[in-house]
Amino acid sequence: MSQSAAAARVPARPIVRPVSRERPQPRLRVVAPAPRRSAGGLALLSVGLLALGLLVLLLLNISIGKGAYALTDLQRQQRALAEDRQALAEQVEASSAPHMLAAQATKLGMVPNQSTAFLNVPDGTVQGEAAVTKAPKSSDKTPETAKRTAGAMAAAAAAGQAVVKKQATAEKAEKAEKTDTKSAKRSTVESSP
Questions:
Q1: 77-121 pLDDT, tens per residue?
Q2: CA 193 to CA 189: how far, in whole Å?
Q3: What percent of the chain stands above pLDDT 90?
Q4: By 3-state DSSP, what share of the chain in percent is helix, strand and coil, each rounded to 5?
Q5: CA 138, CA 140: separation in Å to the nearest integer?
Q6: What string of DSSP letters covers 91-142?
Q7: What's the CA gap between 193 and 190, in Å, rounded?
Q8: How distant is the alpha carbon of residue 156 from its chain centre?
Q9: 111 Cβ partners below 8 Å, 6+ apart?
Q10: For residue 178, which of 167, 186, 168 has the smallest C-alpha distance?
Q11: What is the pLDDT of residues 61-80, one digit of tens each?
Q12: Which residues lie below 8 Å from residue 142, measured CB to CB, with a gap of 6+?
């Protein structure tokens, strides 16, 4: 009884297993294969990019070559101009020699003066005594040349006087500026605690 009583106590239940839902199986059918992209397009793109790169490199190389030729031509021109400048500087030095200046002055009708006077530009004083010199009688120069020469000398003297005045004015302004600067420094030093 004990077994039957135990069996009577526990009702026997059937074990229920979950029912699996069966999915309906799809129908199988034959499908056409997916179209494959050909590698020819990629290869064509790669070759095109390579050709473009080489073309750009070629153009760059040509441009650099032209620049090199232009640079060489400019350097050649620079050397020629430097030689011309040096030749002109030598001509100026040769023309500035004392004997050449004396010859040019004689051509213009000027005569050497035995009594010389010097102008001191900073303060405008004259040192020495200037006397009028007369040309020798054999001179065939016209008085017109002498007038032009005298006019040029007068203009040079006036320019020298103007320079002296400008320098004097500049010196006065500089002194006044220094004085103003010193007084401003003193006032700032005195006013600081």
A1: 999 999 999 999 999 999 888 888 888 888 888 888 777 888 888
A2: 8
A3: 26
A4: 65, 5, 30
A5: 6
A6: HHHHHTSHHHHHHHHHHTT----SS-EEEETTTTEEEE-----PPPTT----
A7: 8
A8: 39
A9: 133, 134, 135, 136, 139
A10: 186
A11: 999 999 999 999 999 999 99
A12: 109
Residue with tokens 């590698």: 39
Which amino acid, residue 70? A
Which pair of tokens denotes residue 142?
């016209």
Tell me how far apart the alpha carbons of residues 104 and 149 are, in angstroms, rounded to a whole number.
12
Q: Kindly give the pairing relationship between strand 117-120 and strand 125-128.
A: antiparallel
* Unique residue bearing structure tokens 């320098």: 167
For residue 113, which of 102, 104, 121 has the smallest C-alpha distance? 102
Q: Which string of DSSP letters, residue by residue, matches 112-126? A: --SS-EEEETTTTEE
* Chain position carrying tokens 């030598």: 90
| Rg of the Cα atoms in the chain | 55
Q: Are 112 and 133 in contact (CB under 8 A)?
A: yes
Convert 115-124 to b/e letters by CB count within 10 Å (16 or more is b): eeeeeeeeee
| Cβ proximity of 163 and 121 under 8 Å | yes
Q: Report d(CA 191, CA 180) in Å as an integer.
A: 16
- Closest listed residue to residue 104, CA positions, set 154, 145, 49: 145
Contact 150, 143 (CB under 8 A): no
Instruction: Report the residue count for the chain.
Output: 193
- CA gap 119, 125 in Å, rounded: 6
Q: Which residue has the tokens 């760059």?
A: 60
